[in-house]
C-alpha cells in the first residue's frame, strides 16, 4: 500500500486495502488506515479522507499522532483552513497531544492561509527548532509576508532573510522579493535584486512582477532606468508586456523626448509586441501637447489605417 501510495497509484493502493479487509487472518490496523488517509490527502480527496477518519473512529481504533498529522496535512493541501484548525484543536483537547511535527504543519498552514497573527504565535512556540532543524519553513513565512499588507512586512522579511544561508537560495522567493520591494517603492533594493536575478540567469515569466517594476519606475518618473530595465529584460529573455513600452513612451513624452518616444515603436516591433489603439493615442497626445500638428495628424491617419475608431480618446496618466 505504501509503495502504491508514494507512486500515486490510488486504485492499486485501495485494492490492496480492500484485500486486507477481506482477509479474516489480517485485519487493517491504524497503520493501514494512515496509509489510506495519506493517499487521499495527497490527492486532495477530502471526502474520502474524512470517510476513512469516520471508519477509524467507528471501528474502535485509536487515532495516533500520525493520523492527526496526516489529516491536518490533507486539509492544508486542500486549503481547508477551518478544518485544519479544528483538527488541531481536537488534538489539544484530546488524549493525543500535538508535537513538534504538528506545530510545523500548522505553521506552514497558517503561512499558506495568510493568517499572520497565528503564524507568528506558532513560530514563537517553535522558533528554536525551526531555525535549526526545519529551515524550509523560513521561506514559507517570508512568502506569507510578501503577499500580506502588514505595515512592518519589510522589517519582518529582512529579519527572516538574515537567517538563510546562500545554499538555501530559492529563485521563486527572489521573484517575490523583487515584487514586494517594487510595491514598497524601494528602487535601489529592487534594482539590486533584479541585478542578482540577471547574474543568476533567472527568467521571470510573471507579468504581474514586471508590471510592479514598471509601476515603480513610473511613479518615480525614471524613464532612463525603465529603459535600461527593459533592455536587460529583453536580453535575459524575461516575459515582456505591452505596458512596459507604453509606460516608456508616456515618460518620454512627459520629458518632451519625442524622438526617443517614437523609437519605442520600432522596439516593440523588434520584440513582436503588437501596437494597439493605446499605442497610437499616446503618440497622438504627445505630439498634440507639443504643438506638432503634422505628426499628430499623421498618427490619426495611422489609426484609421489600422482600424482603430476614434470615438473617444483614451486617457493617459497624469
TrEMBL record:
Instruction: Say which domain of life the source belongs to.
Output: Eukaryota
Kindly give the Pfam families that the UniProt entry links to this protein: PPR, PPR_3
Q: Which residues form a coiled coil?
A: none
Intervals holding PPR repeats: 29-63
UniProt GO molecular function: mRNA binding
Keyword annotations from UniProtKB, A to Z: Repeat, Transit peptide
Q: Which PROSITE patterns match?
A: PPR
Spell out the family assignment given in the record's similarity comment. Answer: Belongs to the PPR family. P subfamily.
What is the name of the protein in this document?
Pentatricopeptide repeat-containing protein At2g30780-like
Gene source species: Ananas comosus (Pineapple)
As recorded in Swiss-Prot or TrEMBL, the protein's gene is named LOC109709186
